[in-house]
Amino acid sequence: MSKPPRLTLPPCARAYRLRTARGEFAVHEAGPAVLPGTVLLVPGFTGSKEDFIGLLEPLAAAGRRVVAVDGRGQHESEGPRDESAYALDELARDVLAQAAAVADGGPVHLVGHSFGGLVARAAVVREPGAFASLTLMSSGPGAIAEDQQPRTKLLVAALESTGGDMPGIWQAIRAMDPEDAVPDAPALAAFLRDRWLATVPEQLIATGRALVSEPDRIDALLAAAPRLPVHVLSGEVDYAWPVTRMDDMAARLSAARTVVPGAEHSPNAEAPEATAAALHAFWSAVSGG
After folding, report:
1. DSSP letter at 42?
2. Chain-wide mean pLDDT for the chain?
3. Which residues on adjacent β-strands are paired with residue 67?
4. Which residues have a Cβ under 8 Å from the Cβ of 111 and sit 6 or more positions away?
5. Which of 210, 217, 258, 273 could cross-link with 233 by S-S, CB 3.0 to 4.6 Å?
6. What is the per-residue pLDDT across 168-193, written as a single tens digit (0 to 9) for each?
7. Are the CB atoms for 135 and 184 separated by under 8 Å?
8. How far apart are CA 263 and CA 269, in angstroms?
9. Using only C-alpha atoms, what is the Rg of the chain?
10. Is 226 strand, coil or helix?
11. Is the dihedral of CA 197, 269, 50, 182 positive or negative?
12. Boundaries of every domain in the chain
């Protein structure tokens, strides 16, 4: 899971609840916008809006209005105890509602991190005209790598068999993790636990299943949005989708490609300044500003 570099919002940002046609979502927004358009940031599996906190200040300083969102059933956004509510298509509809709510008559640049990339892609396939660009960050063409699937399947099975015992499963996860996976900062360790406990178990079950079963949908994306500017961004190493697989995906999409030095699966948290610079450069290139 992504570990935010800090938890305090910068002065340019605020937290609030975004009202949409599909309900309210907890968001962080930074700005004000100098350049046209809004950036919508969609987090991944076990993630939240806080995963993007390091991007807010540098993107706002570059003139971008940025909105990072907790998806349905994630962290501070409520959701039902019903797996069907978290089907990929339902989450894509949420993203479209979020985009409509933040657009304010201007373009929306969509960014999906990890599983959020699968959701973002599904939203574009459903309604390509809703977006000015798509960035797939540390996200692949389909299911995660085969050697990473057993851990996700084990988590899903544990959630199902225990009826969603989030405290008990958190303790089990921590026991399985290497020592260096536990943050040194007590506040960050407490945040990661609290975020986990606040997430709806059925959201994790449904999205975990999608992570290990999602087919390659790059052809569907190309068919739906052949002229949409696409950016594939990753770290130098990635455990969920091999970097070479993301290289191939970028080639198939004729997409811009960025590899962030020194970063792994979460360049948004591990190298936010370099990641923000790459995102800003891409949007400037495709929109002229």
Report:
1. E
2. 95
3. 29, 40
4. 39, 40, 41, 42, 120, 134, 135, 137, 279
5. 258
6. 999 988 887 765 566 668 999 999 99
7. no
8. 9
9. 17
10. coil
11. positive
12. 13-145+214-287
